[in-house]
Amino acid sequence: MSNTQKSGQNTAGNFTQLGSLFEEYTLVDKGGYITQEFQDYGYRLAIDLGDMKHKALYIKMAKEVDRTILDAALRFVSDATHAKSKAKLFMWKVKQLKNEKKDAK
Predict the structure, then answer these.
(1) Which residues have CB under 8 Å from 83's CB, separation 6+?
(2) What distances in angstroms separate CA 12 from CA 7, 18, 21, 83, 94, one per listed residue?
(3) Is the pTM of this model over 0.70?
(4) Type and span of the H or E element at 100
(5) Which tens digits make up the pLDDT trace of 86-105?
(6) pLDDT (tens digit, 0 to 9) for every residue of the chain, 105 residues total?
(7) Domain ranges of the chain
(8) Cβ pair 14, 6 in contact under 8 A
C-alpha cells in the first residue's frame, strides 16, 4: 500500500472530508424565499394551473383556504382537458366548494 494520500482522504477507509462533499454543488438564487409549506403548495398550484403571474394569490389561498377544498378543485381542473383557462376554472370550483361547505353547516 502506498503512503501517499489524496487531498481530503484518509488512507484507512478512503473517506473524504465532510466539508468537501458539497464543493461541486452550487445553488442558484432565484430571488425568492419559500420557507413555509403553504408557500410551496401555493407555488406548485400556480405551476399546475399555468398561472405564474398570480402565484402570490395561490400562496395566500394555500394559507387561508381549507386544503381539502383546494385539492378537490385542483383534481377537478386536472380532469378538465378542454378548459380555456385552468386558473379561472379553479377559482370557480373553489368558490363553489366553499359555498357547498357553508351551506352544509
Answers:
(1) 77, 89
(2) 14, 16, 18, 63, 61
(3) no
(4) helix 86-104
(5) 999 999 999 999 999 999 98
(6) 555 555 555 556 777 787 777 777 776 766 678 889 999 999 999 999 999 999 999 999 999 999 999 999 999 999 888 889 999 999 999 999 999 999 998
(7) 32-104
(8) no
Please give the single-letter amino acid code of residue 73. A
Q: Rounded distance, CA 8 to CA 17, Å?
A: 5
Grid cell at residue 6 = 489524496
Please choose, from the candidates 36, 79, 90, the residue with its C-alpha nearest in 3D space to the C-alpha of residue 98: 90
DSSP letters spanning 31-97: S----SHHHHHHHHHHHHHT-GGGHHHHHHHHHHS-HHHHHHHHHHHHH-TT-S-HHHHHHHHHHHH
Pairing of strands 15-16, 9-10: antiparallel
